[in-house]
Prior knowledge:
The protein has one helix at 2-22, and strands at residues 55-61, 64-72, 112-115. It folds into two domains: 1-30; 52-117, no CATH class. The model is unreliable at 4-17 (pLDDT under 50). The chain is extended and about 55 Å long. The chain contains one helix and three strands; from the N terminus they run αβββ. It starts with a helix and ends in a 15-residue tail after the last strand. The protein is α+β, with helices and mostly antiparallel strands and 130 residues long.
Amino acid sequence: MRRYLILSFLFCAAGIQAQEEMLPAWQNPEVNEVNRLPIHADITNKNEERMSLHGIWQFECDDFPTVKTMPVPGMWEMNGVGEPMYCGIGYEWKTWWTNNPPQLPDSANYKGTYKRMWTVPKNWKGRDVM
């Protein structure tokens, strides 16, 4: 009986893990990081060289197929993609879809891509650039 319970638990645990692995990362509540650096305090070292990536980027949004320019940092809605919305209580989009965590809707859920070219200074050769 004891072995049977242990085996049942292991099979159930494996099933749950397999189900979690089948979900895309953005729908899996167990995933809270993908391809990121370790957490650290962002205290700037005066000797550290930095390059700002702020500026004008090429931008494309799935629901607005025209490629346009977008300031970074910036807000899509304030730069012609979608409509700015404000709701004093709750969320403006609360009636757009059924709330069913961790499932996320594909409709009315904008997805955008930013693209920009820049040149890493020659004196950074051989360094880790992040």
